[in-house]
Amino acid sequence: MGAPHDAMLARLLREVRAGRAIGRIPPLPGPIHVTLRDRGRACATFWQPDGQIGTALAAAVKLAGREGADTLQVDLGGAPERVAPTDFRSAFPNAARGIVGLGVALDGTTTWFAPSQMIATNRSFLRLVDLELARRGIDAGTFAARGGHFLRLPARQVLIRLAPEVEATTLVRGGRLVRPEACTPSMIQDMIEGMAGWMRANLRADGRMTYK
Questions:
Q1: What span, in angstroms and rounded, lies between the C-alpha atoms of 103 and 124?
Q2: C-alpha to C-alpha distances, 128 to 187, 197, 206, nearest whole angstrom
Q3: pLDDT of residue 92
Q4: What's the pLDDT score for residue 191?
Q5: Cα angle: 116, vertex 71, 127; to 5 degrees
Q6: pLDDT digits (tens, 9 = 90+) for 129-165
Q7: What is the DSSP string of the chain?
């Protein structure tokens, strides 16, 4: 079974929030990543390694009540694909950043990085590997010699608004897919004003821009 579509995901979350049983849902083939946000600020994050959607939603609802979150950002994992260290660059091109997730597996443990995390932190696949190997205290040669490998995680990103009503929207690289026919003159004007406002707010007196 694939990941639930947006309307079904919203319905499941409403059922969980109401305290009603949602029945058994087949797990996804890959792990689930959830970030809880309050007015855009990340306030909690967790992984559901076994792909159990019901368990992930129940945990998210509990955390949302405690943290005051108004939005969930969810990465629904597909079947992970094993990648040898020698194939890393071809399996994880920069064009795939924000589309697929990355798993770094060694000695029976896997550290996951979701597509939404890569967008939020603006980190490349290679940078994430460097940080993970440094955390483990090993270099790339040792990682390969000990049988380390990578996992390419296809994932669907979904933004779930919790208020005023529960609403789920599939994202593409962290943003909504806007069809050409939806681009009205007023929308384009709003976009121009928003971008110009951001640039004015981030432009320093010496001409430099705040990037991160």
A1: 13
A2: 36, 32, 32
A3: 97
A4: 86
A5: 20
A6: 999 999 999 999 999 999 999 999 999 999 999 999 9
A7: --PPPHHHHHHHHHHHHTT------PPPSS-EEEEEEETTEEEEEEEETT--HHHHHHHHHHHHHHHT--EEEEEEE---EEE-GGGHHHHS-GGGTTTEEEEEEETTEEEEE-HHHHHHHT--HHHHHHHHHHHHT--HHHHHHTT-EEEEEEEEEEEEE-SSS-EEEEEETTEE---GGG--HHHHHHHHHHHHHHHHHHB-TTS-B---
The residues, any chain, with a CB within 8 Å of residue 8's CB and separated by 6 or more, are none
Gap between the Cα atoms of 174 and 74, Å rounded: 10
Residues linked to residue 201 through DSSP beta bridges, in sequence order: none
Give the model's confidence band at 4: pLDDT under 50 very low, under 70 low, under 90 confident, else very high. confident
- Residue 151 pairs with which residues in a beta bridge? 82, 103
User: Interhelix angle for 53-67 vs 6-17, to 10°?
Assistant: 60
pTM, whole model, 2 decimals? 0.82
